[in-house]
Amino acid sequence: MLHISYQLYCSRNFPPIAETLKMLADTGFREVEGYNGLFDDLDGLKAALDATGLTMTSSHIGQNLIADDPAGMLATIKNLGIKKVFGPHLAADERPADAAGWAAFGTRLAEIGKPLQDAGITFGWHNHDFELVALPGGEYPLDLIMQGSDDLRLELDLGWVVRAGHDPVTWINKYQGRISAAHVKDVAPAGQCLDEDGWADVGHGTMDWAAIHAALQAAGCDHYVAEHDNPNNHTRFATRSLAAIKEF
């Protein structure tokens, strides 16, 4: 079964969350992916999910938040029914400067995720483009992160792979068996969608989805998360992207 979800960060500029969830349910989504910025009002979030029948099957949660209060964060995760958690980002001033630093971060990430994994939660990392920029020795930060533990899983953001200048199929094949979710994100043709940071609705950009979908299926990935970092109309994005993914 292919799980099709929607990253709620796409709709951060279209509050309130209850209206966004209703729009997504009306569009045909059944699953969503959260982010820890939504957890300030847990009761309201859970009530809105219950009212629409949507399930938050995965979420981005800052790794430092988990490290600071693993028991409290695990309680939140269980309360919302989240099954997969991914560390989402490192600010520029937090990024290691060399291979040893990235390897150490991978080890630390694995340690942070251990309490969640022990509780049956899938845990791993979500990439942007900076993890796919080769270091002076030719190694990639993403590889060094994933070497932190064989238990770490990857949410591969396909749009950022392309933005970093790589073929997504190559990276899908590299991490066969370890990709627990994929961010299905499209890149607009050069010079288009500039008011949306050059991103496109899924199926309306330049990505070769036939090849990507085939590779993801061969790699055992059954969880696709639609994402657009800056849509100027999130209803349009949700509607067109869900239709495109269903055609894969």
TrEMBL record:
Source species, domain of life: Bacteria
Name this protein carries in UniProt: Sugar phosphate isomerase/epimerase
SUPFAM superfamilies tied to this protein: Xylose isomerase-like
Domain Xylose isomerase-like TIM barrel: 23-232
GO molecular function terms listed in the Swiss-Prot or TrEMBL record: isomerase activity
Keywords: Isomerase
